[in-house]
Amino acid sequence: MHNEKSISFDSYEKMAEYYFEFVDTKPFNAYYERPATISLLPCVKGKKVLDAGCAAGWYSKWLIEQGAEVTALDFSPNMIEMTKKRVGNKADVVRADLNEPLNFIADRSIDIVLSSLTLHYLKDWNIVMTEFGRILKHSGFLVFSVHHPFMDFIYFNRENYFLTELLEDEWETNKEKVKVQFYRRPLCKIISSVIEAGFTIDKLIEPMPTEKFKELQPKIYKKLTKNPHFLFLRARRGLPDWA
């Protein structure tokens, strides 16, 4: 389901095996992003969870181990293969593009949507947020992480914070450098996209890296304690039950 809107498709095709081998212990993932994302998740035992942008399947495996019923999707065939390699037949692993409607998922059938470091690859959030709202049960949870808009604005030395713009970076892997593209957008666009799709935001965090991160990469740890790198958000479909 690759189309012109699916940026960084070739990049992730190249990086799939690297992700599979190294994502478990990459400090930014293992000791900064994942602890924060997991802290936002409700109890997943017995819940139907969509891993939206599953990459090499770390979250899918973790969710299964916690007793969740998992549907995992990614737009990269190679990432899909890595996820299948990791979880076997314990999850429904589907190749799909979040730029398109998720027609294979029924209305009000999902308890939790988890999307880790994925949504910044989408230029337009209208479709994806509408689809997340459609498939989630009433008061179902949406938990996601994205690049922090402040970080991208400063790091890439942009002139206009309020633009939604395509950026390009170069990432080191164990074999080669890979060019990756993604979108930067202001905080107001991130928040308004969620609210306009009918969600109620109940938590937003800009966490500190863990002590393990400090142990492995003290210089970057120090920088992360002063400059946010990722943004984490939890929202619920519709008003909470007590409202």
Protein architecture, described:
By secondary structure, the protein is an alpha/beta fold. It has a single domain, classed as 3-Layer(aba) Sandwich (Rossmann fold), CATH 3.40.50. The chain contains 9 helices and 9 strands. The strands form 2 sheets. The chain has a 7-stranded mixed β-sheet, sandwiched between helices. Strand 2, helix 4 (77-87) and strand 3 form a beta-alpha-beta unit. Helix 1 (9-22) runs parallel beside helix 4. The radius of gyration is 17 Å and the shape is globular. The relative contact order is 0.17.
* CATH level-3 fold name: Rossmann fold
User: What number of structural domains do the residues give?
Assistant: 1
CATH superfamily: Vaccinia Virus protein VP39
The chain-level mean pLDDT equals: 93
Summarize this entry quickly:
The protein has nine helices and nine strands. It is α/β, with parallel strands linked by helices and 243 residues long. The protein has a single domain (9-148, 194-236), classed as Rossmann fold (3-Layer(aba) Sandwich).
Features of the shown structure:
Rossmann fold; 27% strand; globular; alpha/beta; seven-stranded mixed sheet; 9 helices; two-stranded antiparallel sheet; 243 residues
How would the blueprint of this fold be written?
Blueprint: H1 9-22, H2 27-40, E1 48-52, H3 58-65, E2 69-74, H4 77-87, E3 92-95, E4 110-116, H5 126-135, E5 136-147, H6 149-155, E6 165-172, E7 177-184, H7 187-196, E8 199-205, H8 211-216, H9 218-224, E9 230-237
Parallel strand pairs: 1-2, 1-4, 2-3, 4-5
Antiparallel strand pairs: 5-9, 6-7, 8-9
Helix pairs in contact: 1-4
